[in-house]
Amino acid sequence: MSTPSTASERFLDYDKSLACIHCGLCLSSCPTYLETGNENDSPRGRIYLMRAVQDGRLPLDDTSVQHIDLCLGCRACEAVCPSGVQYGNLLEHTRDHIEGTYERSTFQNFLRRFVIEKIFPHRERMELAIIPARLAKTLKLEKFLPKFARDALSLIPGNGKGEPLPPFSAATGTRKGRVGFIRGCVMDVMFSETNQNTVKLLNAAGYDVVVPEQQGCCGALFAHSGNLKRARECARDNINAFANQNLDAIIINAAGCGSTLKEYGELLHGDQKWEQRGKEFSGKVKDITEFLCAANDAAGDKGSAGASPYQGVAYHRRRVTYHDACHLAHPQHITKQPRDLIKGVAGKNFVELPESDVCCGSAGTYNLTEPEMAERLQNRKIQNIIKTGADIVVTTNPGCLLQIRAGLEKAGSKIQAMHIADYLAGDEQAVIEDRLP
């Protein structure tokens, strides 16, 4: 529905938007532009639309909003931009403006305001919501559901929630320090075993692990979907939760969360009480791959998975490839570390994935709000994974795992999609099976 815009509605940092010189180097890295070829679905095209809306030259109508909605927020454009355009910041502030002024359909409001904002960031609510979804999958009721519901259902993992993480886990190797761990929302509910393996890796590397009970959603879901007020509230809550813990680092194993956690200073910019605290908090945040590689290097164990208690031996004979989670590769610039850890297990059995850093279509909750484009990108990713001939595809983000697993299942592929923590930790039963002739 159209909403008139006036020049007085200032939601963009105009200097940041003018940094874009429209050179076009971002086009080949933008997943939606690669699919549509539409300039309005490119980073430079969207920045032009953002400025036009703010200037009052373009109404905030269905067409302009759709081009902004279609953006994955993957920030691949930032990695190749010669002008250093802070596209993620521009996108989040534009979406914040849209959600405050544009009237969405009843269905989109239900998805965004209820499912995404009222269920996903809350562990207890998510656990309850997943119960009927898993029951429907068990009873094979998908055929009776509309396509968007079938697609959403395919993303729900079949396993139940495991044991919760203890508030403190002592180092099992020579003690080197003390770190905090952010358990996440989706990770805690749908990938609890991955969280447990992450803590085991940290303990084996010589670190005590603290998991504050008071922590909550990192704010990424809110920031990416256009609710900066709620994202800032999440940031303040987490800063308080991890305060006074005497931590060497704060570890996260979900790329999308890590990107937001490392930008708390920017998120809280202008808040005299919290901005500096946000910067200090973000300065301690490390992705699990980033931290393990640094720990290995400090121990003189470069290029190996020496921090893993099982050395990943369950998978060392299997051909493996790696998908770059967007928010690890682009905003955080972490691409080498996960590959080094995987190669330490796989050796010559590692194979590069074509278009590894092109988004798989998950993009947080994008596969729920924009299912058609998400499916196109999912198919593109799955075909590239299959071409590698790999037995395993490893990644570092829960959304990517859900999207890739669903795509592999739809394609009838037996390739196994795994989080890197699970790959490095290995599995005792899998070790036994791998040793069988």
Largest sheet report: 5 strands, mixed
Count of individual helical segments:
24
How do the strands line up in the largest sheet? 1-3-2-4-5
Distance between the termini: 63 Å
What proportion of the residues form beta strands (DSSP E)? 5-15%
Portion in helices = 40-55%
- Name of the CATH first level of the largest domain: Alpha Beta
CATH architecture of the largest domain: 3-Layer(aba) Sandwich
Number of strands: 8
Shape: globular
How many domains in all?
Answer: 4
Oligomer: single chain
Low-confidence region ranges: 4-8, 302-310, 428-437
Q: What name does the CATH topology of the largest domain carry?
A: Rossmann fold
Q: Whole-number average pLDDT?
A: 89
Rg estimate, integer Å: 21 Å
Structural class: alpha/beta
